[in-house]
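Contributing: when you submit paired examples, paste them exactly as shown. First protein:
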Amino acid sequence: MITENGICTDDDTLRWEYIAGHLESIFRAMQNGAVITGYLYWSLLDNFEWDKGFSPRFGLVEVDYDTFKRNIRESARKFSRVCQTGVLKR
C-alpha cells in the first residue's frame, strides 16, 4: 500500500504530472511482480503543516483559508477519471 504520496506545489499541472508519473511507475512495478494493494495521494485538501503553517499546497482540493471555500483542482478530476476507468491519459 502506497500512502501519503504527494507534491507541494501551486502548479496544478505539475501536481498532475507527479501523480501520473507515480501511477505509471506503480503499473510497471506491478507488471514486474510487485504486489501493490493501493495508492493514496497526500492530500485530499490543502492543510496545515506544523513546520510551515498553511502555505504549502498539497491538496487535490484547494482551500481558501479566508472563506474556507473548496475548489476542486483539475488534477483531482484527472485522478478521479483514472480511478473510475483504470485508464491513465496524460
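Second protein:
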Amino acid sequence: MEDKDFDGAEGHVVTITNREQVSIGGVIHVDSFDDQEIIVDTDLGTLNLKGEDLHIKQLSLDEGYLEVEGVVNSVAYSIRPKGRGERAKSLLERILR
C-alpha cells in the first residue's frame, strides 16, 4: 500500500484494502496488539481487529491515525461508552461511586 497523507479529517474512518491493509482514523489509544489481534480505542468506541501476521505499519496518536498490515479475518466494535472519547469505567469505579 502506498503511503497516503492523512489530514486528520473529522469523523471515524476505517478503510480495508484486499483484507490485507487497514487504515483507521479517529484513533485515541492502542490498548493491545500482537500478530493475531489489535485492540484500539477510537472516538466511536473500541475496535477489535483479528487476523494473521498483523503488524502496525504506522501509528500517530497526535493525528489519530493507525495503519495495519496482515490478513484481516474480522473487525468488531464493542459497545460505545457514554460520552465521546471517554473510557468505560471499571466495575469497581461504578460500585464505589
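If you have annotations for the second protein, write them as plain sentences, like these:
The longest strand covers residues 45-60.
The beta strands are 13-17, 21-25, 27-33, 37-42, 45-60, 65-77.
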